[in-house]
Design a protein that fits this description.
The chain contains seven helices and four strands; from the N terminus they run βββαβαααααα. It is mainly α. It has a single domain, classed as Transferase(Phosphotransferase), domain 1 (Orthogonal Bundle), CATH 1.10.510. The strands form two sheets. A two-stranded antiparallel ribbon has the order 1-2. A two-stranded antiparallel sheet has the order 3-4. A hairpin with a 5-residue loop joins strand 1 and strand 2. Helix 2 crosses helix 4. The radius of gyration is 16 Å and the shape is globular.
């Protein structure tokens, strides 16, 4: 488990290579469950982690939530929640509806399905990383050469020219 998935920890070069950084909180655990004090970045905590008190069961599915929030933020160039105050933010995540990608959003159905599976509030119903690996989006990006091409295309179409 990474335990701190967020956009700042995803590194990408201009050739489309992607790396996950900040591995200081990573835990390798049996059965994908760990008892831990909260760690990581609160804005990307899953509802069950925000609601769980100091000692909690941190599961791989908590990382899946963080991945979904991260993908929404990268896709729309803004964080999906609007609350600024910590208490309001916690209430919005724990008690409000989960952010979703709608059919009107200008992304592939595979992307919308993947992200929405990550952002199911109930951790029992949320996709596990093994389930996500079988999605159409994950299968589409298994070929690293194709993936680099997609990433380079994204970079070229979404960044200004760098001198």
């Amino acid at each position: 488990m990474h335990r701190d998935i967020k956009p700042e920890n995803i590194l990408m070069d201009f050739k489309g290579n992607v790396k996950l950084s900040d591995l200081g909180l990573v835990k390798v655990l049996e059965n994908s469950v760990g008892i831990s004090a909260k760690s990581g970045t609160k804005l990307y905590y899953s509802p069950e982690v925000l609601d769980g008190g100091l000692v909690l069961k941190y599961q791989v599915k908590s990382d899946v939530w963080s991945l979904g929030i991260t993908m929404m933020e990268i896709a729309f160039f803004k964080f999906p929640y609007v609350s600024i105050l910590e208490k309001d933010f916690i209430d919005e995540v724990c008690d409000g509806p989960a952010p979703i990608m709608s059919h009107d959003d200008d992304y592939s159905e595979e992307m919308k399905e993947f992200v929405n599976q990550c952002l199911i509030k109930d951790p029992e119903a949320r996709a596990h990383i093994r389930d996500l690996a079988k999605t159409k989006l994950a299968i589409k990006f298994q070929d690293l050469n194709k993936t680099r091409g997609y990433m380079m295309n994204f970079i070229q179409n979404n960044t200004e020219d760098i001198p």
